[in-house]
Each structure stands twice: as C-alpha cells, then as structure tokens.
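Translate sequence into structure tokens.
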Amino acid sequence: PDTSGQHTLCYEQQIYLIAGAFLSRHSLPKNDCLALSALRNLFPSTVMNARLVSVAWALNFARAFYLPGVAPREYESGEKVELKVNKLTSVRTQLPYDYYSHKFCKPHGGVQATAENLGEFLSGDRIENSPYLLFMRMDEYCKVLCQTKLNAHNILQFKRSIDEWYHHNWIVDNIPAASVIDTESFVTTSYSRGFPVGYYDRVSGKHFLYNHANIVIEYHEAVPGGNRIVGFYVEPFSVQHEFVGGVSWDGKDTTPALQTCSTAEPMDLNQAKDHALALTKSIEVLFTYDIVWKPSNIKWASRWDIYLSMDNAVPKKVHWFSIVNSLLIVFCLSGMIAIILTRNLRRDISQYNRLPTDEDPESEISTSEETGWKLVHQDVFRPPTTCPMFLCVFIGGGVQVLVMALLTIAFAAVGFISPANRGSLMFVMLVLFALMGTFAGYHCARLYKTFKGQHWQRATAATALLFPGGSFLVFVSLDLALASYKDSTGAVPITSMVALLALWLGISVPLVFLGAYLGFRKEPIEFPAKYSNIPRPIPMPPWYLSSAFTVTTGGILPFGACFVELFFILSSMWMDQYYYVFGFTFLVFAILLITCAEITIVFLYFQLCAEDYRWWWRTFLTSGSTAAYVFVYSSLYFTKLESNLPITYLLYFGYMLIICFGIFLFTGTTGFYAALWFNIVIFGSIKVD
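Result follows.
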C-alpha cells in the first residue's frame, strides 16, 4: 500500500468481495461497496497480509472463470432482450428441421444464424434470430407479429408436423423455453422438448395450429437497475383471430384492433377455447404474442436447476436405487473373488509349492501334479493363434475409448460440461478421443510386441482407423440419408465434416503412431512362466465352461449393474430430456468396470482349472458381451419412440451400433487386462520346475 492507504482499502474490498462471491457461488453486485459492510463480519480487518492478498488474487481468477461456461448478463429496464429460435424437433422421427422451413414469421432484416461450435452442428442445432420484440420489464399484450397465408402445401406440412409431435425450441438469454399447456382438465409444464407446433383433436378429427404465444419471463433484480433472466416459459394458444367490426387486413398498414384478444391482459384458456384455429384448405393465419415479466427470488446461478431436475419429475432416489443395485452385484462378485483367492488359490498355491517328503502319500503328490491350473503354466502365456493382431487393435481402441469416457464423465461431474453450453459434451468427447490416440497406439504396440508380431505398421494403422474409421463411415452414410430430406438440420455441413476429418487424420492418427513408437521401444510384457514349443492338449470342457456359454452369460451382470442409469441416458439422447447427474454416472461407470473385471476373473479361474489355456480372446469377449445386452435393451427402448419412418430406424440403430461397439471395446479391454493381471499374479506365486 502507498502512504495514503488507498490501495489497502482496495485490496481489503477485493478480499471481502471475492471471498463472499466464492462462498455464495454467484456473482456480486456491480457496486462493490454495497456488499462490503455485510462481508466485513465474515473476515477480520487484520488479514491484510501478502498471503491473503495472493489468495484474493486466486479467488478473483476463480470468480472470472464460471464453470458452466456462460457469464450472467444484466439488463436495464426497457433494454431489448433477444429471443432466438432453434430447430424443430420430434422424438418420434428424430429428424430435426430448420425453424423457418415452416411458414412462420421471419425477421424484417432477414434470418441470421448464430455462431455455433462443432458439437452444435453435429447435434443438428441451428440457432437463428426471430421477429419477436421483448423489452425488459415491459409487459405487452396482443402484439401482432405478422399475417401469412397458408396454401395446401403449408397446411399439409403443418399437419404432418403436428402428427409427428414436432416442437418449437426457443431461447432467451441462453435458457430454453419451458412449455405450459393449459387445458380444461389440467395444466402441464414441461421443461424439455420445447412447446408443440399444434395439436390434433380426436373428437372433431381436426388439426389446430398454435399461433399465439403467451411468453412469461422471470427475472431477478441483482442490483438496482440490473435484472437477470432466471426463467422462460411459453404458453401456446390456438386462436382464429378476428378484427373488430369484421374488417380485413393486408398485413402492410396499421394493424386494426382485435376482438379475440385484449391489450390489457394476457390470453387465457377461456378466451381461446371457442376460437381455435383449425387447419383447413387455405387460411390466413395471424401470429400474435403476449409478454409478461415476473419478478423471482431465484438466483442466476440456480436458474438451470429446475430444467435439469425437470421440476423433480425424476427423484434422486431412483438414481440411488441404481447405485445400490450395482453395489449389490459388485459385493456378490467380490465375495466370489474373495472365496477363490483366499480359499482355493491359497490352498492350491501352498500345495503346489510344498516340497514332497517321505511322510506324504504318493497318491496326494501325484494328484497335485496331474490336476489343477498349474498344469497349464507352460501354455497359459502362449500368444493366441487366432488373429493376434486384431486382438491388439481391439485392446488399443478399447483403451482409447475407456480413457476418453473416464475423462469426459469426470469433467462433466465437476461441472466443466454444462447444458448451458450446447454441444459441449459432444465436442469434448471428440477432442478427448483424438487426444487419447497415444494411449491406443502404446497399448496396441506393446502387446503386439509381446506376441512377437512382425507387422507393426499394419497394427498401428488398423488401430488408428478401425473404430474411428468405422464410426465415420456409418456417420457419413447417415448424413447422406439425412441430406435427402429437404430443410433438415440433421445433415452436417461440409465445413463440419472437414473439421471432423482434420480432428481424426490431423490429430488422432499421428498420436496413435506416436504411441505405437513409444510402445515398441518398451520391453515386452514380462511373464512369470515361459511357454513350451509344443502346445498341451486341451481336454473337452463341460458345457457350462464352453466358450459359447461363458461369452453369452459374461455380460449379464455388468449390464445389470448399469441398466437403470442406462434408461436415463437413452432418454436424454432420444427423448430430448436433460441429463445432469454425472456424479451418479461416474459411480455407475466405475462399478461397471469393476464388475467386468470380476466376472472375467471368475470365469477365467474355472477355465484354467479345466486345463483350457486359450484365454486371450475369450476374456475379451466375456466382458465385451455387455455391449450385446446394451444393444438388445436399446432395441426394446426404441418402441417408446413410436416411429414408422425408415430414416428413424437408420438413425437410431446406426448411432446405437457405434455406441455399442465402443462399449464392446472398453468393457472387453477391462476384462482382458483384469485377466492378464490375474494370470501374472497366480502363476508368479508358484514354483515352476
């Protein structure tokens, strides 16, 4: 501080204010002095030292970095608030359309797209401006947007969209519109999917278009004159508007007064229910809207809570049930592993390592030498004879997917990935997958070197191209199918396709080769026993130890450990619902990996006891079969979409095929490395002649 002490006061204010902001988890008022007196009570005035100043600087940096990725914006009264529109979506067709592909009112200055990231393009988002005029804390009623004439083609398009459950997706201040549907029986509020284009009345057999929007925006006054938007609701109505005196309007001059809505109060069900707008052969549609501003006590940092929990539609105890269910499976398997390790293996190892004496019966010694898993010690580490290079390629791809999934879930669990950043989850997954190419190349190369493989270039190239290349081919095929649908935003632009190729070929592939170079420079994996030149004959195993049985049943328990949480993940993917409990996801994912490792070890032990040493591929397939059960479950889930379009089948099962192949790779890799560790431990614990 200088002699005047002004800098001391500035630092003191900074310490109080930033510490308070850090503790309260939301930004402070613009005028720091307003909060200073309240925060002085939390900290003594004698804390002015170099260490606390450093802490203040660090907390100031933390204050500037808000995890969800967006900063609050404050609006003054009367300031314009922009309403943006996104794609039209349907959970039945999974085919998004551009908002202005239907004959809605367009902005006077033309439609302008908002800059989007790669994840938004891949998700089909197309955010554009709209003609709606909103001004902070200024209520307006019966505002005329435009008048448009619908021809037969437009009518048919709207009817088809209503039948296929298409919804609007509006955005104000980066939060989506919640839907409020008011009927004579009940009022339904939905915090996902937006609000519908219209509805179909089964009694009259007619389609009705929602052409009036009652827009309700909640705001929180953080400081005097500084208002933050914390809620956004749209209550749509279908109204066949009529002008006072039955006059007509050409849409150009001053708008005549309407007798079907009031400029003094917002639209309600009683006004609209007798004047619904039915879609007939050719009609004039007048689009109108109301704007209602409501004060709220919700803080800006908590405005997403009601969207993520969908107003507590899914209680957290359901997710806890999933965790408990998974833990029970893990405890049962862990008990079996404990019995094997503490009883059978300890007895076997002590028996094998015991030196024969004159007091030991010959029958007992001969039995210990002729039976048990020790008899395959000269063959258990023999490289596989069936496609060893492809096994290494699968292991490399599995490690890449596994590390990517772990980091993605971890980042999401701590708050780095938020729904406020649209497309961030997909973007982070793509970037992390590309950066994890080094792990894929390293594990593939070292395992292939252990198998004494000679074609390391082919193995490395296959690792770099197999999973990402297959996924890219499926993705391009689906993209071409989507491109045949006019105005669909599901088709990825060519620029995004080039960015994907650059991410894959420019980053992932070189990193795979770098990892392979490092892996081949390492020594091969050291095994506690060497394999003989002549393979040992394998006796006929019982039916319950056959490869078909163990591979088929190996994935049941891992799938059972995660199927509850899998339902919510599929709902977020295909039913346009928010998923935010990534902490639960991380726990379930860890339990899934533990279950895959344990079930593989159990089956491996019984396989070795049956003197069958062909475990390389078998252990990979045993735990990898979890993906088959996930695919079957997703096929059953598909019935919830109630779709009959061929493109929906292609999109759903095409993307689920990519996802399940990734699950197959990382679950198989988990089981494989657990089996490798188990073999090294048990065969390293016995004395080999």
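Note: The first helix runs from residue 6 to 24.
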